[in-house]
Each structure stands twice: as C-alpha cells, then as structure tokens.
Amino acid sequence: MKLTSRSVSLGAIISTVTTAALGAVLLVSVPASAASTLGAAAAQSGRYFGTAVAAGKLNDQTYVNILNTEFNMVTAENEMKWDATEPNRGQFTYSGGDRILNQAVGNGKRVRGHALLWHQQEPGWAQRLEGSDLRQAMMNHVTQVATHYRGKIYAWDVVNEAFADGGGGGRRDSNLQRTGNDWIEAAFRAARAADPAAKLCYNDYNTDSINAKSTGIYTMVRDFKARGVPIDCVGFQSHLSNNAPSDYQANLQRFADLGVEVQITELDISGGNQANAYGAVTRACMAVRACTGITVWGIRDTDSWRTGENPLLFTGSGAKKAAYTSVLDALNAGGPGPTTTTTTNDPGPGGCTASVSLNQWNGGFVATVKVTAGSSVLRGWRVTATLSNGTITSHWSANRSGASGTVTFTNVDYNGAVPAGGSTEFGFQGTGSGSGLAPSCTAA
Ligand code: G2I
Fold it and tell me: Which of 221, 268, 375 is nearest to 51 (CA)?
C-alpha cells in the first residue's frame, strides 16, 4: 500500500492503523508535514525545482508571485544565449541575463546558465564565420560569458543540442561542428577555467529514452570522463508529448552511472494524461540519486514556447493544474537524493563555519563546501576535511594540500574576503567515498 500524505485523510490513516497488521503499518511512510511549494518539496531530498524565466515578464505580478513562491532555480529562457550576450563581435551585453540573475538571487534562488554554445540563436556575425576564426570567437565567447557570471551560476549548459536527430547517433552538422570534432571538449575546458565552481552540463532534446541520439551522447560523456574532460552533468530537456518513455528512468540512471549528475532541464508535456506523465517524470528523477533537479520550461501555459499546447503546470490565469499536484505529490513522496551533511563549529568574531554538500555515486563523488563567515568579516580561511576512503582527483576555487586522509584547503585570491555572515564555495571531485568529510573552518 502506498500513501501520499496529501491525498489521504487522517481518518483513512487511522483506519489503516486499526485494520492492518502492525508490520504493514510500519512500512508506510507519511512525511510529518508535506511541503506546499515545488521548491520546498524538492529541497526535502536535496533537489531543486526550477523554471525558465523571460526578463520581459518580470513586471507581470501574477508571474512574479508564482515564480517567487514556487521555484528555487531559474534559467534565462533566451537572455544568456549568444545572440543576446554578444550581438556584435567582442561587444558583450548582459542586461537581460543580469536582470534575471539578480531577481533570482535577490529572492534566494539559484541560476542555471543557458547556453554558452548552440548552433541556434548564434548572432548574425557568428553565423557567417567558419574555421579557425569561428573557433577563436566561440572560445572567447565561452570565456567572456562564464567569467562575467563567475561564481554565480549553479550549472552551465556549456554546449546545447550538438547531436543529430535520426538513427546515426552522431554529431549535428553546424558551423560549430565544422571547426573540428573537439569543439565540445574545448568549450568545457574553457568554461571550467573561467568559472571553476559552476557545474558544466551537456544539454539536448529527444534524449529521453535509450535511443541512438542519447547513446551517442552517452558515449561522448563516457569518453570525456575517461580522458578527464571536465563535465559534471547532462541535461535532458524533456519536451514531451503524451507520456514519459517507459525507459526514462533507466536512461537517466545509465548516465548517472558514468559519474555525472543528471538534470531535467526544459520539461513541458502536451497531450495525453498530462498529470500522470508529469508524475512519472518527477518520480523517475526522485528514484535516481544523481538526478539533482527539474526545471519546467515556463510558468503558465501562456508563457510556453509551445503555443496552444498548454504543456505547463499553471493555467494562463495562474491557477495550479492537476499536473502541478501530481508533481508536488511526487516530490513530497521523497526518494534517495544528493546527500547533504552539515557540521558547524562556533565561529565567534572573525571565525567561520564549513558545511558540505556531497554528491556520491558508486566509485566517486563531488563535494561542494560552503564557507560561512561569523559575525565579522573574514580576510582568509582554511578548511580541513577528512577522506578516510577516498582520494581527491581535482578541485576548484581553493588551494589544496593532500589528496586523502586529512586534506587542507585555503582560499584563493578572489574568495578569501567574505563579508560578516556571508559565504563562498569551493569544491573537489574524487574517487572512492566522500562520506565523513566533516569539514571545519578556521580564519587564516
Ligand atoms: O525551442 C525550445 C527550447 C529548446 N531547447 C533550447 C531552448 O533554448 C529552447 O528555448 C526556446 C525559447 O523558449 C524560445 O523563446 O528557444 C527559442 C529559440 O530557438 C526561443 O524563441 C525565440 C524566438 O525564436 C525569437 O523569434 C524571439 O525573439 O524567442 C525569442 C525571444 O522571445
């Protein structure tokens, strides 16, 4: 018997208790209190729930109210794309992207960056380039935009939609691809160098089942992991019709087993039993530990790029649809999530605390450590952490000494100063287990 706390009345639970055998009752898990918003419900298992946002709608009160209440991750629908951020070669404009980022951060949300390189929405000047001139422009674009947003982006879609549809499982032809097959890894390396704290994702559509296209991407990710190309996550856009494919979860899981996070990045579903399909997608993510969050591609049906298909969670007037309830229930039902452990010491004036968010998979892990200043400004910091069964293979936004046992991290030049009560993050990746890190922070 499966109970979801929102759909079962107290009377029904009591009658279950009085009529069922005790052993059966103990198997039933009813959360003490179910969360009432998508973001809070996802956060219970260490996940996020996000939406695409259009800067032009940030004056619409209904839109902003739903955004601020329900979501804790934001993607700029168009404003961080190449045509928006570099309309003329070497001239960067961040007004739309910054507006979305500032609105999100000001309301306690994180931001997914979308997208550094994509064959669509290239500015006209880039569409006319080829070869080494284009390659130089592409890498400069990645470096400039990732540097502008350095330290502020949770995850970047570094490369979007580079694989072809149809049976071959190969790359899509584009002027980007014609600069050489290594353009994707070159972009990931440039993005890592520019913003070492951002998770770096490959993002695509029609990859929601085990098919030739998703397998082509799977093979690329496996190769990147084997050769140390910095990739942290794969985005599954999930623009679906009718249903989630029956092997949706299995497909997410096979990527997770490569040691990357998986994220559902642009979810919308038209036709069929929409509430059921949304529930199935959400449950699939919840069942995959490395599935760190879900983003829907817009708030109300009238905000969707799929005009007339009503593929989202809110009606045009902002009312919650059946699909909303189905997603909320699935998030509240829980599932194994990215684990988060927190240790604190008493910082006192001038002191600091450290907490770690750990994404562990079979054979490896990524740890993100948050350093928080006490009641006065920090001028520098030192964090020690213990790796009893793991070895660090790479790290970012800190200096490191040691790779296993007691490992010490100190700030780099750009993140040593932390305002009173403020925080900064660094991270590392390793093989084996990252459990028991118990980081502790001292001012340096
Ligand atoms: O096409 C759906 C999505 C597929 N994956 C990548 C996403 O970035 C993509 O998003 C859509 C936006 O939702 C649309 O809003 O990307 C489209 C561009 O390919 C966006 O459409 C564009 C229109 O084509 C432009 O004419 C318009 O100026 O939106 C622009 C801003 O409203």
Answer: 268
Task: Map residue 10 onto helix, strand or coil.
Answer: helix
The strand order across the sheet containing 405-410 reads 399-401, 405-410, 381-387, 440-443
Evaluate: CB of 157 within 6 angstroms of ligand 1: no
Find where tokens 């054979």 sit: 363
Atom of ligand 1 at shortest distance to CA of 304? 13
CB distance 282 to 4 below 8 Å: no
d(CA 251, CA 324): 24
Q: How far apart are the first and last CA of the chain?
A: 55
- Cβ(155)–Cβ(232) below 8 Å: yes
Q: Find the 80 Cα to ligand 1 centroid distance in Å.
A: 12
Is 288 in contact with 262 (CB distance < 8 Å)?
yes
- Average confidence (pLDDT) per 10 residues, the chain, 444 residues: 38 36 38 84 95 98 98 98 98 98 96 98 98 98 97 97 94 98 97 95 98 98 95 98 97 96 98 97 97 98 98 98 98 74 50 87 84 86 94 91 95 84 87 92 90
Contact between 139 and 150 under an 8 Å Cβ cutoff? The reply is: no
d(CA 42, CA 332): 7
DSSP state for residue 172 in the 8-state scheme: P
The rounded Å distance from CA 121 to ligand 1 centre is: 8
Q: Which SS3 state, helix, strand or coil, does residue 4 take? A: coil
Cα 369 from chain centroid (whole Å): 17
Distance CA 342, CA 180 (A): 45
pTM score of the predicted model: 0.75
Predicted confidence at residue 23, as pLDDT, reads: 35
Q: Are 301 and 275 in contact (CB under 8 A)?
A: no
- How far apart (Å, rounded) are the C-alpha atoms in residues 53 and 97? 10
Q: Which two tokens stand for residue 263?
A: 């994220």
